[in-house]
Amino acid sequence: MGPRRKGEKRRKAEENLTKVDEIADTSRAEKPSEGRINDVMRGKKGRTKGRKKFIGAHVSIAGGIWKAVEASVDIGGRSFGLFLGSQRCWQRPALDPDVAVKFQEACAQHGFDSAHILPHGSYLMNCGSPKEDVFARSQVMLVDELSRCSALGLTQFNLHPGASMGSSTEECIKRIAQAINHAHQQTPAIVTVLENMSGQGSTVGGQFNELKSIIDLVRDKTRVGVCLDTCHAFAAGYDISSTGGVKSMLEEFDQVVGLNYLRAVHLNDSKGKLGCHLDRHEDIGQGQIGISAFRDIVNEPRLDNIPLILETPGRPGFEYAEQIQLLYSLCED
């Protein structure tokens, strides 16, 4: 990329940061100065705010799983999500031990702790399926995913709980817990992190009480947690866009599930409206949730020291790097 293209990309990114900052607080008389934006654009090395917030993004493993570490560094992330293999097939080649070592060395070199890395489960898995063949395949894949985490030196693994596909929610919840308990018996230590869902179709986990019901049936409570997805929560009916909405959601989560189970957050705005049950992610500050909620999130002390991971679509001049920079610019200390 030549100097002209780099300059154009930087200019567009700064325009996006200015625009979203103006949306964040239209009552503020003083707009962000060029100097402040330049400080934000320098990335994590120049940050003086948000030191307890570990913001990153879901990054690609193309070219080798260790490339995810390099990709996160390139966008200024302090945490990251990744897939552990192909999303197109149930069976994948065994993990090369040399590749695992290379990944761990890259993490150590760039200062990524396993607590701030959250692998994401394959979308093929449905641990709540009433179809015996799908359930059996999903259970085998979950064991494989947790085994890969162990080999890579990772400590937690995120998955969509499952969908009932015509069976009852109660039966689906029992199967999900059964698959998790089986996987825990076959693998050491890795924490299985359940993601809340939007309530689309027959998916389970859109309501906090459904996540609690799964956790109740997991035998080893030290090996289960939750990742809150902001788009999913909003689409499921939790109004984090309103004043005090983020705090209200966290208080309800604490009452129903318990904040001790909260392991991570997926940061996504929503294309759909409140309670739409549509899993449609949007860029930060560009959707129905709005920038104020994300300002509250990055200044919420109960979300310190856990991975806050973007899964947004991105657009020219406002990709992951710019959205990470924006979120850090919203931090007040």
TrEMBL record:
**Span list, region Disordered:** 1-34
SUPFAM superfamilies according to UniProt? Xylose isomerase-like
Which InterPro entries did the record assign?
A: AP_endonuc_2 (IPR001719), AP_endonuc_F2_Zn_BS (IPR018246), Xyl_isomerase-like_sf (IPR036237), Xyl_isomerase-like_TIM-brl (IPR013022)
GO BP terms, alphabetized: base-excision repair
Record-annotated Xylose isomerase-like TIM barrel domain positions? 70-329
Entry annotated with the keyword Cell membrane: no
By sequence similarity, the record places it as follows: Belongs to the AP endonuclease 2 family.
Q: What is this protein called?
A: Xylose isomerase-like TIM barrel domain-containing protein
Gene source species: Pygocentrus nattereri
